Amino acid sequence: MAQWIDACATDDIEEEDLIRFDHDGHTFAIYRSPDDEYFCTDGLCTHENVHLEDGLVMDYVIECPKHNGQFDYRTGEAKRAPVCVNLGTYPVRVEDGRVLIEV
């Protein structure tokens, strides 16, 4: 059964950036968009399981730090090779300055 997990404070993430969040043996990446919205994806690249936390965030794209594959973090869609498998995405809501994800 899905549940909402308190992941971080909204101020923990700079605009156009991400943070890593680990919960129950799973790694997530939580993003803050240029429009001040929050999104959550799996935290590991689907190409070689590299942590995305050190990747470059530009607009709505996360670039993997290892082979420069890109994903749209709003949808998880793989956008540039070598990645070809989409990232999993998770619902996000903000309450009282906290970012919650549904897992």
TrEMBL record:
Q: Which cofactor does it need?
A: [2Fe-2S] cluster
UniProt cross-references to Gene3D superfamilies, sorted A to Z? Rieske [2Fe-2S] iron-sulphur domain
Q: Origin, by domain of life? A: Bacteria
Disulfide bond listed as a keyword? no
A GO MF label: metal ion binding
Cite the entry's keywords alphabetically: 2Fe-2S, Iron, Iron-sulfur, Metal-binding
Annotated ranges, domain Rieske: 5-101
PROSITE patterns this protein is in? Answer: RIESKE
| Keyword Lyase attributed | no
Q: Which residues form a coiled coil?
A: none
NCBIfam families attached here? MocE_fam_FeS
Q: Which family does it belong to?
A: Belongs to the bacterial ring-hydroxylating dioxygenase ferredoxin component family.
State the name under which the record lists this protein.
Answer: MocE
Source organism: Marivita geojedonensis
